[in-house]
Amino acid sequence: MSIEDRSTLVFASGIGRVKEEKPKAERPQGDGVVRIQLKRLGGGKMASVVTGIPLDEDALKDLARTLKQKCGVGGSVKDFNIEIQGDKRNILKAELEKKGYTVKLAGG
């Protein structure tokens, strides 16, 4: 391993700030079925997790925003999954089916 491989160069006088390029996370390939499962969080809280939506990151954030508004709760997007606070599986299923997705309720 050479010095260039181990270097953490941040600034070079001739070039300016050197930005390290991180590989962009890729959406996992699914089977075309959107799954909604209930996840138990710490403190007895629950979250509805929507997985398998075939959208890029920006479109997924927009969809998450509309789903949060329909459910009237908060949530987030993590690792190409939408997490909605509380047990809102039935509302999420109805909204996603209106948008044309094939939806299954997963888990117990």
Q: How many E strands?
A: 7
The span between the termini is: 50 Å
CATH architecture: 2-Layer Sandwich
Main CATH class: Alpha Beta
Uncertain segments = none
Helix/strand structural class: alpha+beta
CATH fourth-tier homologous superfamily? SUI1-like domain
CATH topology: Translation Initiation Factor Eif1
Task: Give the tags.
elongated, five-stranded mixed beta sheet, 27% helix, alpha+beta, single chain, Translation Initiation Factor Eif1, 108 residues, two-stranded antiparallel sheet
Folded structure, characterized:
By secondary structure, the protein is α+β, with helices and mostly antiparallel strands. It has one domain: SUI1-like domain (Translation Initiation Factor Eif1). The protein has 3 helices and 7 strands, in the order αββββαββαβ. The chain has a 5-stranded mixed β-sheet with strand order 5-6-4-3-7, covered by helices on one side. A hairpin with a 5-residue loop joins strand 3 and strand 4 (46-51). The model has no long low-confidence stretch (mean pLDDT 84).
Strand and helix map with partners:
Layout lengths: L2 H4 L4 E2 L3 E2 L15 E8 L5 E6 L5 H15 L3 E4 L2 E5 L3 H10 L3 E4 L3
Parallel strand pairs: 3-7
Antiparallel strand pairs: 1-2, 3-4, 4-6, 5-6
Short description:
The protein has 108 residues and is α+β, with helices and mostly antiparallel strands.
